[in-house]
Amino acid sequence: MTDPATAPGSARQKIDTSVPHSARIWNYWLGGKDNYPVDEEAGDAYTAVFPGIVTIARSSRAFLRRNITYLAGEQGIRQFLDVGTGLPTADNTHQVAQRIAPESRIVYVDNDPMVLAHARALLYSTPEGATAYVDANVLDPERILEAASGTLDLSRPTALILSNILGHIADLDEARSVVDRLMAALPSGSFLSVNDGSRGVDPVFEQAQEAYNSSGAVPYNLRTVEEITSFFDGLELVEPGVVSVQQWRPEADAPEPEIIAEHGGLARKP
After folding, report:
1. Which pLDDT does position 21 carry in this prediction?
2. pLDDT score for 122
């Protein structure tokens, strides 16, 4: 989860360590170190109500890894636009893609000052490829596309990654508009990857999320599976469609996948 609520250019603002931040809490649940005591306290308070959030966070990251592996390895995609990237952890988009195809080019987008600082320090590219960071708001697709075009050739197929970011946009129609405007700028053969927390699967998760949203942190809105699926309207879903993230093309040696309250899918633009 990342915070799209601040204005573009916010990376120049001072990092506030007095209140919990969703990107840092997510990093804590993933086992990262880029967080503060206030984030650990908020994360622990959440897990006290719903311990399964750690499974959701790590399953979300694994889903993204499998998506990128499929795109780079089976579909030959060499350009990735990762919007709402959050704090760098293990197996970031560029690491997965460039292990398969070192010439891959990746643009990360976020507008959090802490994310910006860490991204610039940690997101190194292979010599053959490129990795760039754009300071922009998810609610400003035109700014994202303009800035990304400095690194990506948007006339070539590109994978748009929206992992746990659309839930920060409260209005479903506005969230769909963001997706539509971004995908409209990409050519045939491009892909859309979306995963978000889902409603209607786990009432304990929903209770914990409602408590989190009322804590003063930037809210994250769970959506039904049908609402998440609607982001792919007009695109060709890759099998098995929109499913709980552990069920999306699990690795052969993975444990039996569970149905957890995090759904996602991958689709191709015809």
Report:
1. 79
2. 64
- 120-137 burial string, b = 16+ CB within 10 Å, else e? eeebebbeebbbbbbbbb
Are the beta carbons of 41 and 13 closer than 8 angstroms? no
Which helix (H) or strand (E) covers residue 110, if one does? Answer: strand 105-110
**C-alpha to C-alpha distance for 1 and 240, rounded to whole angstroms:** 24
Q: Alpha carbon of 129 to those of 49, 72, 80, 95, 236: distances in Å?
A: 43, 13, 11, 11, 28
Question: Is the pLDDT confidence value at 57 over 50?
Answer: yes
Look over the chain and give the mean of its residue pLDDT values, rounded to a whole number.
Answer: 90
| Residue 100, H or E segment | helix 93-100
The whole-angstrom separation of Cα 33 and Cα 13 is: 22
Q: Report the pLDDT averaged over residues 146-170.
A: 97
pLDDT at position 90 over 90: no
Residue 7 pLDDT grade (very low, low, confident, very high; cuts 50, 70, 90): very low
- Partners of 237 in the beta sheet? 267
Q: Is 142 left (phi over 0), alpha (psi -120 to 50) or beta?
A: alpha
75 CA to centre of own chain: 20
CA atoms within 13 A on the CB side of 200: 9
Q: Is 244 helix (H, G, I), strand (E, B) or coil?
A: strand
Whether 171 and 230 have beta carbons less than 8 Å apart is answered as no
pLDDT at 20 over 90: no
Q: Is the pLDDT of residue 10 over 90?
A: no
